Structure formats: C-alpha cells, structure tokens
Amino acid sequence: MTRSHHNYGTPWTRDESILAFDLYCRIPFRKTKATNPEVQQLATLLDRTPASVARKLGNFGAFDPDLKKRSVVGLAHTSKLDEQVWIEFHNDWNKLVFTASELRERMGESLPQEPRTTIPAGPSEMFVVQKQRLLQRFFREAVLSSFASTCCVTGVFHT
User: Which residues make beta-bridge pairs with 125?
Assistant: First the structure.
C-alpha cells in the first residue's frame, strides 16, 4: 500500500527549501539519497516523497563550490528559490540553524537532543567550563560532511 503525498507535484515553498538546505549542510553529499533515513524523515515532515527531497538536496549541490573542486556536480534543474536559499544561508549557518529550528518547531518536530533554539542577542557561543559551541550537532555534522566524514583536525574517520 503506498502513501499519498499531499505535496506531490506542488512547487517547493521557501520554508521547505530551508529545511532541505539545513539537511544538505548536515549530511555528506553522497548520502543525499532517498534511502537515507534522514532524507526519509524530512520527506515525512514535509509530506513529500523521499525521492523529491533527494532531488532537492541534489539541486543544492549544483551551487556547492566544494563539490565543484572535487569535480562533483549537483543536479542541473535548480530553481531561483534554490539559489536564493543558498545565497541567504550558505555563509550564515547560525541564521540557518535558528530558522530551521523555528520551522521544525512550528511543524511539531525538533531534532533529537536539541534544546529549543532561540536567536541569541549576542554571540552564538557561551562560556561553560570551557568554550562550547552552541548547536554542536549541526556544526559537527556540517564539518564531517565537508571533510568526507573525517575530522579536519585529527584525521579520525567517523561513521
């Protein structure tokens, strides 16, 4: 029995595109497949097919300079909205994390082990016993994604 997707064939909204870009930044490009559980989870949240989400992730790959350096290309059929989301958030991950968190909360979902996210009035880091990055999960996944699941400091491979 197949599930009906209410958004099948409808254009992507800005909010949906932001959530897709958030996922794009957190997983390696090679894992932007419809079979990836994280892609499937986002598809369920957006009421879209996993294949549709995977295609949207591939669209963002078309703008990625790091992929171009490795002679990897994303999909060719991007939209103006894809480019607008890329331009707005590619160099402002804090804004991306806060916006995506607010969207997920509005849709009734949050990432596992993430506290409610609010935009800080000041820096996006705080002093604990030592300096600790807020929203560490996003930062860790984005760094590992950018360095082929290898720590850019120690060279240790992470699965």
Answer: 133
Strands 131-133 and 125-127, sheet pairing:
antiparallel
Give the Cα separation of 87 and 69 in Å (integer): 19
The model's pLDDT over 99-157, given as tens digits with 9 standing for 90+, comes to 998 999 898 875 555 555 566 667 767 665 676 677 778 887 888 888 877 766 677 77
From CA 41, how far away is CA 53, in angstroms rounded?
10
User: What totals of helices (H) and strands (E) does the chain contain, helices first?
Assistant: 7, 2
In sequence order, what are the residues at sequence separation of 6 or more whose Cβ sits closer than 8 angstroms to the Cβ of residue 131? 125
* Sequence spans of domains, the chain: 14-146
Give dist(CA 6, CA 16) in Å, integer.
Answer: 14
Assign 1 a pLDDT band (cuts: 50, 70, 90): very low
Q: Where are the alpha helices (DSSP H) in 35-152?
A: 37-46, 50-61, 65-69, 80-89, 93-106, 136-146
Q: What is the dihedral of CA 138, 139, 143, 148, to 10 degrees?
A: -20
